[in-house]
Amino acid sequence: MSDIKIGVVSCSGEECFGGTISRLATRKVLEDLRLGEAVTICLPLFIAGGEEERNFAKVYPTVAVDGCSKLCAMRATEKYSGKVNAVVKVDEIIGKEKALEKVVSLRELPSDYMELVDKVAQEICKEMDKISSDILKKQAEEELKNSGECSGGCCCCGCK
Amino acid sequence: MDKKTAILPCNGLDKCAGCVSREIAIKLQEEKNAEIICPVLFRVADARYNKVASENELIVIDGCNTRCATKLASEKNLKVSRKINVTEASKQYGIEIQSKLQIGENEKKLIDMILEDILKKDDSNGENSSILFPKVLDYEIYKKDKFIFRLPKEGFYFNENDVWVYVQGNLARIGVTDYVQQSLSDIMFFTPPIVGSEVEQFDEVGAIESGKAVFEVISPVSGKVIRVNEALLSNPEYINENPFEKGWIAEIELKDFESDKMLLLEFDEYFEKMKRKVDEFHV
Questions:
Q1: Which chain A residue has its CA at the smallest distance from B40's CA?
Q2: Which residues of B touch A17 (CB under 8 A)?
Q3: I want to staple A13 with a disulfide (CB 3.0 to 4.6 A). Which of A38, A67, A74, B2 is the partner?
Q4: What's the pTM value of the predicted model, to 2 decimals?
Q5: A142-157: per-residue pLDDT in tens?
Q6: pLDDT tens digits, residue range B220-266?
Q7: Residue of A47, A103, A106 lying closest to B43 (CB–CB)
Q8: Which among B122, B111, B99 has a CA at the least distance from the CA of B22?
Q9: H-type alpha helices, B67-226
């Protein structure tokens, strides 16, 4: 587990089933797949002016998880805290038609929901891993640069 | 548009209370054919919900005490017919909810209890929904020569016009304080406010008259008058007997008590103020 924290800003989804899947997938990432690495940002509070949420999203990298093409999570994050590092578009993963179905209770989820949640959760993890790996790579390059060592490969420049 | 129900839930994802609020909203959608307002979309593109939110009975469900949903309704100038706060309800019902986001057994129980409460109130069609007023009140008494006044110690707010309000959920009962009835002496007439009328905080909401003067009752809260104490029409002396209990004036469905509260006094402040007033004017 890396010690890089990544904010996951999930659609709160009352407009469509894609929102429900966004919530569940985000929860799976937070509580199971990337425990300790992902930090959720409460989108309604974020938009309402939650300073802690906004500051976190300004300082840390973020992944927006959007249930439909309205992309509320991405747009709000970019409006208040800066560019998101990645967007997971649920409707592109589970299909537009499915994503736009009506919202359902967590007690009465359709039988295939777990499969859909897993797909989206995997996609969130993939984006998080990519962000972590980019950050680690950048940190390594910085360290090498600061120590005066060459970044690797065969070199004839005379560096140590 | 037919009057139906719109629900504005907190919908938060970082606390279990947010998940509970969403579940309540979805259940209400099924039971009452209500329309859920997505708080996020409502903020970023309010045209989608403006009509739904303003033309229907609006239930606001807050998850935690940050009260994002209430604040949103207030910013959009919406009239709220009922407010639910999941965190407060969990305390009220004695059901502890977890910090994780799952809806477990306790959360299911809480959802069912809140829903039952909402639907029960609906069955009564507003006609019989009434606040549960305490059967026994604990009073603080102040005496200055002949002048005696008492004030309930807990649960009441007061305005500068000597009118009290007791709030429970989205309902409030109002009346005049002991200071008023003492100052007016024998009350002979009671003019009630009109049931169904909308009042703003500090609007007149009825009047009482004694041989000495007419006292306009200044509303400590804004909202809709849903009931008046009809017993006062034939027995205005109830106000003299006990203005906090059988002498209450009216019940109001609150519009925005959080805002109203800022201009109200609690027991300590009002009691001190009244003591000074009695000391200065009733010597």
A1: A44
A2: none
A3: A67
A4: 0.62
A5: 888 888 755 555 555 5
A6: 999 999 999 988 988 899 999 999 999 999 999 998 898 999 999 99
A7: A47
A8: B111
A9: 68-75, 86-93, 105-123, 178-184
